[in-house]
Amino acid sequence: METEQEIIQKIKEKKEFSQIPDSVVLRVLSKDKNLDEKSRIKNVRAILRKFFTAFLTNKILKGKLSDEEVLKKHISTKNRDYKELYKRILKEEASVIDLGAGVNGFSYKYLGKREYVGVEGVGQLVKLMQEYFNENKFNAQAVHADLFDTEKVLKIIKETKKPRIVFMFNIIDALEFLERDFSKEFILKISEECERVVLSFPTQSLSGKTRFKARRYWILNFIEEKFEILDEFETGGERFVVFKRASARAEKIRDD
């Protein structure tokens, strides 16, 4: 019988999964312990493709596209008007830590000269973003990391210049699939190290033809209860919530 590590290596033999951290693959693999090895490998690859590599295309991976072409080719970013989005959510000078960045780093020109750190689990995207940053001499870096490694994520945040804004664009579903209620504790911890958090989730299918029935009230209610909501809006098939830690006075009023 193959060990878990040996199965992980088999899963990662496919190029698209080869640069995903073993810790991420193991977390997915642990959900299918009762299946035979062949079924486990098939299921894990399907889940990884859904949450991590569905947006990888040969055109993006070849690195021959302009920043705008990358954003338009990537399914999760093609409907975002980054210029208008950043104008709305970034009303002050602050460093940006982008968790589960995907290809967001290619929108850096709309961020001005602020410090930007894109944290991403797919190594190929990390490499592409870093090459783009280096080529243009941007004040930005891409970091390869597993978001479930909370200590590493907190270290990355603490190493950026204050004030700080953390982006969590379209990552809640993946986090919750892998570990239920992880998102709540995760948000509580990172909010202690930043002044703002911007969370988003899709409100319609990637094709844009179907609106989701799920409203994700569980996370919206949690944010409303624990934080001060600064802005909330929907654009391009995506709902955004901007929030910060509630003041001590506000928390006391809620408790009363």
Structural notes for this entry:
It is globular and about 55 Å long. By secondary structure, it is α/β, with parallel strands linked by helices. It has a 7-stranded mixed β-sheet with strand order 3-2-1-4-5-7-6. The protein is 43% helix and 18% strand. The chain folds into 2 domains: 50 residues; 189 residues, Vaccinia Virus protein VP39 (Rossmann fold). Helix 1 crosses helix 2 and helix 1 packs across helix 3. The chain has 12 helices and 7 strands.
What's the layout of helices and strands?
Layout: H1 4-11, H2 22-29, H3 37-53, H4 58-61, H5 67-73, H6 82-89, E1 95-99, E2 116-120, H7 123-136, E3 140-144, H8 150-158, E4 164-169, H9 172-178, H10 182-191, E5 196-202, H11 217-226, E6 227-235, E7 238-245, H12 248-255
Parallel strand pairs: 1-2, 1-4, 2-3, 4-5
Antiparallel strand pairs: 5-7, 6-7
Helix pairs in contact: 1-2, 1-3
